[in-house]
Amino acid sequence: MTTYDERADLSELSATAGEVRRCVESVIEGKPDVVRLSLTVLLAEGHLLIEDVPGVGKTMLAKALARTIDCSVRRIQFTPDLLPSDITGVSVYDQQRKDFEFKPGAIFAQIVIGDEINRASPKTQSALLESMEERQVTIDGQTYELPDPFMVVATQNPVEMEGTYPLPEAQRDRFMVRVSIGYPSPAAELEMLDVHGGASPLDDLQPVAHAHDIAKLIGTVRGVHVSDAVRRYAVELVAATRSHSELRLGASPRATLHLLRAAKASAALGGREFALPDDVQSLAVPVLAHRLLPTAQAQLNRRTAEQVVAEIVRQVPVPAVGPGPAAPGTAPPGPAPYGPPPAHGPHAPLNRPQTGQARGY
Predict the structure, then answer these.
(1) Can you tell me the distance from the alpha carbon of 306 to that of 50, in angstroms, rounded to the nearest whole number?
(2) Residue 339's pLDDT band (boundaries 50, 70, 90)?
(3) Tens of pLDDT along 265-308?
(4) Across 207-226, average pLDDT
(5) Residues 346-358: tens digit of each pLDDT
(6) Is residue 328 pLDDT above 50, yes or no?
(7) DSSP label at 290?
(8) Alpha-carbon distance 335 to 330, whole Å?
(9) Residue 149, preceding peptide bond in cis (omega within 30° of 0)
(10) Can you tell me the mean pLDDT for 169-182?
(11) What is d(CA 154, CA 160) in angstroms, rounded to the nearest whole number?
């Protein structure tokens, strides 16, 4: 099993992540933000849900991300007749051994691509719940650990499309981020005709990182410092969704945890060993929106969950930039409420030189 004790320094993380991004962007033209967000989810140990209309490259993005990493990959085509045992595996009786033998399902891979996940019944979708949260599968009372690193990249069509089942709230809550690719710009679509016209660029895509390299990057992300001020800010954003008048279901505590993990990965990709409020703000909509349920009145007013989260981000006060000057006769101000971790203790630096701070944070 892969261990996350070994860490890469920020320069190694930047180099490896840059190679992965370049490879994926050679297949998915004109969507750098979507590619960066997908890589953020991978390094934050989350799962990615790609939702959009057919034909915009949802499966292509999932396959490109998987092919750039030298690890085990399995694809599951979700259909109405798919059974839970097709995903998790099944115990088969061996006549020669006179005993049951476990046959692993498609979930036993480091990157699992679930294509059109909402075309399967909710009963089959529930087969992913334990694996996505606990990274294990229990069959006939026996628990089997899943490989590390482990990531589910699922695609789905909007629920208005024919033959789809809406994902249950518990299933959506296990996805760290939901992203939409959207239609390409005319220039990107012209480039796509040149690149994809003769052959699929996936055929020439070669792995640029090993599973062990990704494990080292995940270890680095785990060690990114998050100050108390940034933690409180994330909690306040999530708590605001639970009392908003236009939402009948707010975000869960798991959403808070996912938001902080994603912020740490975003900080590491930005070359910082500490997270900023900017990291939390930029990820609030993709991390929180798919977990929320608008009220009937909000739906009548055509208010989306994304709009509500964006409004909450504007309303919740951002932590102060710095301590400000000291008042006469008082002690000089202490350090900024967030920034580089202390030199000693549980939030010590990750054994690498201090990087510059952004925007004075």
Answers:
(1) 15
(2) low
(3) 999 999 999 999 999 999 999 999 999 999 999 999 999 999 99
(4) 93
(5) 444 444 433 333 3
(6) no
(7) G
(8) 15
(9) yes
(10) 93
(11) 18
User: What's the confidence (pLDDT) of residue 109?
Assistant: 93
Label residue 336 by pLDDT band (50, 70, 90).
Answer: low
* Closest CA relative to residue 266, chosen from 221, 310, 235, 307: 221
User: What's the Cα-to-Cα distance from 151 to each of 147, 279, 305, 345, rounded to whole Å?
Assistant: 10, 22, 25, 31
Cβ–Cβ < 8 Å for 46, 261: yes
Q: Is the dihedral of CA 249, 255, 260, 266 positive or negative?
A: negative
Helix pair 211-222, 10-25: axis angle to 10 deg: 130
Q: What is the mean pLDDT of residues 106-111?
A: 94
Asked if residue 39 lies in contact with residue 20, where contact means CB atoms within 8 angstroms, the answer is yes
What tokens appear for 117 in the block?
Answer: 């996940």
Nearest-CA neighbor of 91 among 126, 136, 140? 140
The runs of H, that is alpha helices, within the chain are 10-25, 32-43, 58-67, 84-88, 122-125, 129-134, 169-173, 186-198, 211-222, 228-242, 253-269, 277-288, 296-300, 305-315
Q: What span, in angstroms and rounded, lies between the C-alpha atoms of 36 and 17? A: 9
- pLDDT > 70 in the chain, percent: 85
Distances in Å between the alpha carbon of 220 and those of 6, 215, 275?
A: 8, 9, 13
Q: What distances in angstroms separate CA 316 from CA 228, 235, 239, one per listed residue? A: 16, 11, 10
Q: Could you tell me the two tokens for 124? A: 């089959």
The end-to-end CA distance of the chain, in Å, is: 38
pTM (2 d.p.): 0.85
CA distances from 182 to 33, 56, 69, 198, 341 (A): 11, 7, 25, 23, 38
User: CA-CA distance, 65 to 88, in Å (whole number)?
Assistant: 23
Among 219, 253, 208, CA closest to 351: 219
Angle (deg, nearest 10), helices 211-222 and 253-269: 110
Q: What six digits make up the tokens of 259?
A: 């938001």
Residue with tokens 């989350």: 46
The more confidently predicted of residues 96 and 154 is 154
